[in-house]
Amino acid sequence: MPDDAAKSIVAPVTVVAGAGQVGKVHRKVDAMERMRGITRYTDDLVLPGMLHAKIKRSPHAHARIVGIDASAALAMPGVLAVITGRDLPVPYGIIPWTPDETALALDKALFVGDGVAAVAAVDEDTAIAACDAIAVEYEPLPPLFDPEAALAASEHNPINPYSRHGNLSKEVLLEFGDVEAGLADAPLVIEGEYFFEGTTHAAIEPHCALAHVEPSGLLTVWSSTQVSHYLHRELAKVLGLPAHRIRVIQPPLGGAFGGKSEPFDLEFCVAKLALATGRPVKLLYTREEVFYAHRGRHPMRMRYRTGFSREGKILAMDARTIIDGGAYSSFGLVTTYYSGQLACSPYVMGAYRFHSRRAYTNKPACGPKRGHGSVQPRFATEVQLDKAAVALGIDPIDLRRRNDLGGDAKTVNEFRIGSNGFLECLEKVEAASGWIERRATLPYGRGLGVAGSTYICGTNYPIYPNAMPQAAVQICLDRSGRARVFAGANDIGQGSNTMLAVIVGEELGLPLTDIRVVTADTDLTPVDLGAYSSRITLMVGNACLEAARKLRKLVTGSVARRWGIPGDRVVLAERLALDRENPEQHVALAQAFAWAEEDHGLLGEVGSYNTPKDRHGDYRGGTIGASPAYSFTAHVAEVEVDPDTGVVDVKTIWVAHDCGRALSRKVVEGQMEGSAYMGFAEAIMEQHVVDPGHGGVHAGPSLLDYRIPTFLDTPELHSLIVEAPDPQGPYGAKEAGEGPLHPSIPAIANAIYDAVGIRMDTLPFSPPKVLRALAQRRAAEAAGQLAPHKRGGA
Amino acid sequence: MTAPVRLLQCTVNGRATAVAVAPHRTLLEVLRYQLDLIGSKQGCDKGDCGACTVQVDGVPKLACLTLAVAVEGREVTTVEGLGERAGGCHPLQDAFDRHDAAQCGFCTPGILMAADALLRRVQRPVTPDEVRAALAGNLCRCTGYTKIIDAVVDASRRLSQP
To answer: Which of A372, A430, A616, A761 has CB 3.0 to 4.6 Å from A626, enough for a Cys bridge?
Structure first.
């Protein structure tokens, strides 16, 4: 019988169709605790008897380690252990094909900041003093900071001792169609050279790890990681322990953006030091260490030739790219592929070739940052399109429309595209920005620019080859009418815990407050590959949907049996089970769950997801960059350029993004705004550089010197959700966390051209570069080589 | 590394508090590691990010640049106290929740304390530009700031309603 509480909410039952969770605005399942300051992030964990660790780091960019004397450190009161590279000699790497780093340097330090020893002491001050007391004798070696110089250097003394090809970390050359013929036939060939300076993630939470060994021998590592499963595997390998003796827990995370997507020295060090001392050990990076740990966006020098027809169709594109990898491979094998493979959409191309080479250099290693490997080539690709639009006298938005790939299509590199909302994205930013009327009338110094992009929703193949599911979710229902969701997925602030609750709430008729989401604990949750490549919504969402639907079927079946009606007449909504044809007949969900438990025993189901294997190219490397589905984005940026100071003021970015289906609207908007912000930051302000003139130290390893935008710097961001549901996604959903970053940079570059007629082909678009380009433009105008840009131009 | 310890007496979130502190400890270290008030965050160790912002006598301060002994006899409010002061959930916290203004939430405590100081100072609905100016010392890396501005403006309107 329905209880009183259930009766009181019968009224909205007639609108069952709208009673679900998908597409609504939600309070996130875990936000309020964060805002009350009671959520425990990794550094908020304290264990009895806990020690503090610090890592001693190399002051040299390249040096042989002649000897390490830790005796003075070990003699200090309060110092319990010192370890060096010899204690953790097993090489590892996030990509199984390129294990080329050790937890601490073995024979050589490869960049300023490379760890050489670690200390565990009773407090942080003592650990720091002990690090100072460790004597390391170095034999400095000549450092190589320039990737082309590194590639030209002798093969016999590679920077990275595990390298098999000198300083060449990875090389990929792929050609689709006849590029040279396409360029030869093209009436217009745009040639450009672009340089993308590296940038870093700068999540506000510094990396932190804590390890504890129980008397049973179980080692637990809490880490601010976004890939608990891979960390679990690498810990087992490096420590020489079976995986079942290690438990990895990711506490709530204070941002990541790709910066926590592989193991770091601190996790191995706290684990080893906890094993050595028998006491819990914590290590929190300083902000300076975060900058040196890096794994941020690769610097790329990109030489592009793009051939166009008179109508603006892309006939051929040729991309040659030098990638500065830093000291280790990290994800570099994938980065090198992505630098070319992800540039083939959203446009039709007659032919395409890319040749990418990643070099080792004596710098902090680069890795994946939001939009891994494809933000840099997107900059080059979209500026090339803008140059063609100007040369051909075609509206830049129209030129992109003419090259639209469309839905259910195949890219030139043989990736299968499903749903595609790119045209609608273009329409939305065109309308919202007032593109047509305003672009024609904006004065000199003010301009609008457009760019488009595409991104993956996870990768079709996991990092280590296996045919097991890429994602799995377990859901349990309990007698109070609530659900618990167990997933290995890493919520890094992007809201994936809420996404899972939305799906469970949709299927089982529960409000999000009745759903508890337990994630990223290798002892409690199923294996999941982690928060990278924008895989979670599509992959973990699908796994969750499968488990939730199994449970719904059990519950609706038990209710239907008791009411003597067919199962499909029973609807679960708003904490009730209802008869669709007679909503007066309803029962509280807790009762429905109890009936199902009477019939079936404990109510728990699992769901898993694996990728389709028919959506990639049939060639070596054709799986890398292939995804079950693709998102699409278009931006229009409006800028004001001050010709006297060279300052580019980005006023507004309109960002339209096809996320398939917005499962939770404000969460999706937040991803779009955060992405557009981060791209804006890379365009105008950020550069992660080490200074060769000062031996390879970081040029500004602090949040003051590495300038990230404040409230005052950030433009108005207008998010415009586009939904082209994809059959591969849960309820049609695709990613929203990385795609919307891509067009920011080229849209701003193209807007600067619209404003003052200069091409910014080197990032970031800082005042000195703008002033130099303006001076060149004025000189060309004075020489009669160029007409003044816009009326009233300089 | 044992420094002479002294007894610090102050008010923390409305409660009289006495804690033994070394003179070189920052307010942030004492709050987080001695009083277990973990809501105030350390993002940069040097006053650049604002994640450690607390209020001392109602004025926003960077706890990582404030020596603990400097708050002797003063009133310290952390994000944990913000909700308590409002009887559970502060209207700013509620607005941040509704607008999805916290993604990872790591910068949020500091932003809430700076925003609360603004709203208490002006006692009226604020404009987006006022929010930008008041929060310029707080970095957020997730949101692009848009939804934070929306939330603070919204909260200020609600707080100004009779």
So the answer is: A616
**How far is Cα A582 from Cα A584, in angstroms, rounded to an integer?**
5
CATH of the domain at A363: 3.30.365.10
- Same domain? For A70 and A211 the reply is yes
What pLDDT band is residue A445 in, cutting at 50, 70 and 90?
very high
Q: Interhelix angle for A332-341 vs A375-392, to 10°?
A: 20
Which domain does A564 fall in, by range? 4-39+468-609
Find the closest chain A residue to B3 by CA distance. A125
Would you state the pLDDT for residue A16? 55
Indicate the residue among A593, A609, A625 that finishes a domain: A609
Find out if CATH 1.10.10.60 is the number for domain B83-160.
Answer: no
Q: Report pLDDT for A461.
A: 87
**A6 has a pLDDT exceeding 80:** no
Residue A489 · residue A250 · CB < 8 Å: no
Across the interface, which of B36, B112, B139 has its CB nearest the CB of A35?
B112
Q: Say if A169 falls within a structural domain.
A: no
| Interval A212-248: pLDDT, tens | 999 999 999 999 999 999 999 999 999 999 999 999 9
Closest CA relative to residue A509, chosen from A552, A477, A465, A472: A552
**To probe the interface with A, which of B1, B104, B147, B152 has the most A CB atoms within 10 Å?**
B104
Coil, helix or strand for A202?
coil
| Domain match, A507 and A597 both | yes
> What band does A15 get if pLDDT is binned at 50, 70 and 90?
very low
Instruction: Tell me the pLDDT band of A19, cut-offs 50, 70 and 90.
Output: confident
pLDDT tens figures, A451-472: 999 999 999 988 899 999 999 9
Check residue A663 and give its pLDDT.
98
B71 Cβ under 8 Å from any chain A Cβ:
no
Provide, rounded to the nearest whole percent, the portion of chain A with pLDDT above 90. 95
C-alpha closest to that of A489 among A448, A530, A544, A535? A530
Q: In the A/B pair of chains, how many CB contacts fall below 8 A?
A: 175
Residue type, B121: R
Q: Nearest CA to CA, how far is A714 from chain B (Å)?
A: 7
Q: Is the pLDDT of residue A399 over 60?
A: yes
Cα of B161 to nearest chain A Cα, Å: 23
DSSP state of A621: T
Region A629-649 average pLDDT: 98
Count of structural domains within chain A: 3
Distances (CA, A) of A249 to A246, A266, A723: 10, 15, 35
Q: Going along A523-581, which residue ranges are E strands?
A: 570-573, 576-579
Q: Is the same domain home to A648 and A746? A: yes
- Taking an 8 Å cut-off on Cβ atoms, the answer to whether B1 and A125 are in contact is yes
Q: Is A121 on the interface with B (CB under 8 A)?
A: no
- CATH of residue A242: 3.90.1170.50
Cβ-based contacts of A32 with chain B (< 8 Å): 89, 93, 97
Q: Over the stretch A248-261, which tens digit does the pLDDT of each residue have? A: 999 999 999 999 99
Residues A231 and A327 in one domain: no
Q: Between A257, A667, A702, which is nearest B44 by CB?
A: A702
- Is residue A710 in some structural domain? yes
Cβ–Cβ below 8 Å for B147 and A252: no
ipTM of the assembly?
A: 0.98
Tell if the CB–CB gap between B133 and A712 is shorter than 8 Å. yes
pLDDT of residue A250: 98
Q: Are residues A441 and A315 part of one domain?
A: yes
A204/B146 CB distance under 8 A: no
Q: Is residue A690 part of a domain?
A: yes
Work out the minimum CA distance from B145 to partner chain A, whole angstroms.
Answer: 6
Chain B CA closest to residue A493: B104
CATH of domain B6-79: 3.10.20.30
Degrees to nearest 5, angle at CA A347 with A344 and A350: 75
Q: Is residue A178 part of a domain?
A: no
List, as ranges, residues 655-714 from A with C-beta within 8 Å of B. Answer: 666-667, 669-670, 673-678, 702-704, 708, 710-712, 714
